[in-house]
Amino acid sequence: MNEYYVYILSNKYNNVVYIGISNNIERRLSEHKSHDIPGFSKKYNLDKLVYYECFSSPAEAIGREKQLKGWVRRKKDALIEKENPDWRDLSVDWYSNNNPLSS
Q1: Is residue 93 in a domain?
Q2: Whole-model pTM?
Q3: What is the pLDDT of residue 93?
Q4: Distance between CA atoms of residues 50 and 6, nearest Å
Q5: d(CA 103, CA 100)
Q6: pLDDT at 98
Q7: How crowded is the C-beta side of 101, counted as CA atoms within 13 Å?
Q8: Under 8 Å CB-to-CB from 64, ≥6 apart: which residues?
Q9: How many structural domains does the chain have?
Q10: Helix (H), strand (E), coil (C) string for the chain
């Protein structure tokens, strides 16, 4: 089964957020963290995964991405803080045995 992810990145200051979509979130996050690809996330050093959702179809993921991008910043912050109040990097443990995405 294919999975599609909508994710939100921030930086160490939590002053900028980036919303993206991917069918391989680990690969895509690695690209963000390496800063090899020019663009918004490189410019603002957005390499901290603070929120993500998983979908079974690309249409659902694209729809959610568009919805989130249309929200005002305080609503995005509230969504993040509901699931991740400390704005910690959710990808820190992805390369350990406790990785829920490896299952």
Answers
A1: no
A2: 0.89
A3: 85
A4: 11
A5: 6
A6: 56
A7: 20
A8: 6, 53, 55
A9: 1
A10: CCCEEEEEEECCCCCCEEEEEECCHHHHHHHHHHCCCCCHHHHCCCCEEEEEEEECCHHHHHHHHHHHHHCCHHHHHHHHHHHCCCCCCCCCCCCCCCCCCCC
| Cβ-contact 95, 27 below 8 angstroms | no
pLDDT at residue 99, rounded to an integer = 53
Examine residue 76 and state whether it is found in any structural domain, yes or no. Answer: yes
| Whole-number pLDDT of residue 103 | 45
Count of Cβ atoms closer than 10 Å to residue 49 Cβ: 24
pLDDT at 36: 86
Does any domain span residue 22? yes
> For position 53, which CATH number holds?
3.40.1440.10
Does residue 94 sit within a domain? no
pLDDT profile of the chain (103 residues), mean per 10:
94 95 94 90 94 98 98 98 96 70 50
